[in-house]
Amino acid sequence: MDAVRRVAYTLILYALTPLIFYRLVFRGLRSRGYFSRWFERFGFFPDPRIESSIWIHAVSVGEVNAAAPLIDALRERYPDYSFVVTTVTPTGSDRVRQLWQDRVFHVYLPYDLPDAVTRFVTRVNPAIAVIMETEIWPNLFRQLAKRGVPVLIANARLSSKSLKGYGPIRPLVRAAIRSANFIAAQSQIDAERFLELGARPERIRVVGNLKYDMRVPDSLIPQAAQWRDAWGAKRPVWIAASTHEGEEQAVIEAHSRLLRRFPDALLIVAPRHPERFRPMIQLCRGYGFVTACRSEDRLARIDSQCFVVDTLGELVPFCAAADIAFVAGSLDPIGGHNVLEPAALGVPTLVGPNTFNFAEVTDLLIEKGACLRIADADDLATALQRLLGDTQKRKAMGEAALSVVEDQRGAAARTLDIVHRVLAGQNPITLGG
């Protein structure tokens, strides 16, 4: 029966190929990066002549950032291996190049078509595949299993929505999961969901969240202080991080209300997707705000009321320069984004009601007093006014955030040990005794 399902699944993918091209064109109209390197998405790229690689797959920017401490540790521990890092999105691709330039080989992961994944695996020749979070592709996993390539699902998470969403291909996903050598789950809830999906109990353990191991460069805090001096050291500053189109209006209206109480307040806004950079700038200026942006002005000025971060990979430095961070993707039912970036910097955080993508992390920060949940867009301005008027509250929240992050570190070291054991042909299940 699985063979029949696999044939049907593959035939449907081939039948949908024209729609895939249309989707690339549509997305390219919004983000120009989708117009380039189409052949890579079907497994066609120059042969890098790799004898043996450690391959890490990270879908987009968030997964690349989460994988960064692990990749750096792996590169240090295994200097004789080539490193391959794949992504799906252009923003993820840009982040890989920003972090490692040509020190890793980067290519897009192809679609889950048998010929495409065969070409890809043949060219990168992995000794191990480290798949970040929730990327489970039946044909890819089958190809890796046929070649005897061990698979580690690292920083593994599975939302209830994803668990329910596999539908008719769930048996194929179950077979893919069962072929994995090890699943390093972020949390007990994630582990239980993977077990429900069909993971082998003897191949899964809770290892923790790699995002807690985010490294804060020593230069970041002095740089943030320097930026604050440039636009006014004593000004109240808040950042709306990773905003989506449906949240932009709420952010601007909250800032408009905030200016009534704090006339010198500065909003830093970082849209999640590049296609929203220009519309965000136009929206700020449409409200009559004095607006600067990273690509043209580099930094906010003394008279700036809004500053749009219209570049990629610079969210963390600007978080470090803020008094409060609102982590977006949480007002609309998107599921929220990474609350650990501001937390690792000791920045108090606000989130909306929809944080199911980072439920456990967000709930822990709220429980420890490092994060506040707002009910809706109207509540955003109220919470900002309250916190910006209470220095001691912000300080306590920041200290709580740093404490949570420090207590939860260690997933990168544990995952590194698992990779070592898998490469050595050992059973990772003995990790930690």
Task: Write a structural description.
- The protein is of the alpha/beta class.
- The chain folds into two domains: 31-208 and 410-430, 3-Deoxy-D-manno-octulosonic-acid transferase, N-terminal domain (Rossmann fold, 3-Layer(aba) Sandwich), CATH 3.40.50; 220-408, Glycogen Phosphorylase B (Rossmann fold, 3-Layer(aba) Sandwich).
- It is built from 19 helices and 14 strands.
- Strands 3-2-1-4-5-6-7 form a seven-stranded parallel beta sheet, sandwiched between helices. Strands 10-11-9-8-12-13-14 form a seven-stranded parallel beta sheet.
CATH topology of the largest domain: Rossmann fold
Using only CA atoms, what is the Rg?
22 Å
Number of strands: 14
Low-confidence stretches: none
Compact description:
The protein is of the alpha/beta class and 433 residues long.
Features:
433 residues; 14 strands; globular; 7-stranded parallel beta sheet; Rossmann fold; alpha/beta; 2 domains
Would you spell out the secondary-structure blueprint of this structure?
Elements: H1 2-15, H2 17-30, E1 53-57, H3 61-77, E2 82-87, H4 90-100, E3 105-108, H5 114-124, E4 126-132, H6 138-146, E5 151-156, H7 160-165, H8 170-179, E6 182-185, H9 188-197, E7 204-206, H10 220-231, E8 237-243, H11 245-261, E9 266-271, H12 277-286, E10 291-293, H13 294-297, E11 306-308, H14 315-320, E12 324-327, H15 340-343, E13 349-351, H16 359-367, E14 371-373, H17 377-388, H18 391-408, H19 411-423
Parallel strand pairs: 1-2, 1-4, 2-3, 4-5, 5-6, 6-7, 8-9, 8-12, 9-11, 10-11, 12-13, 13-14
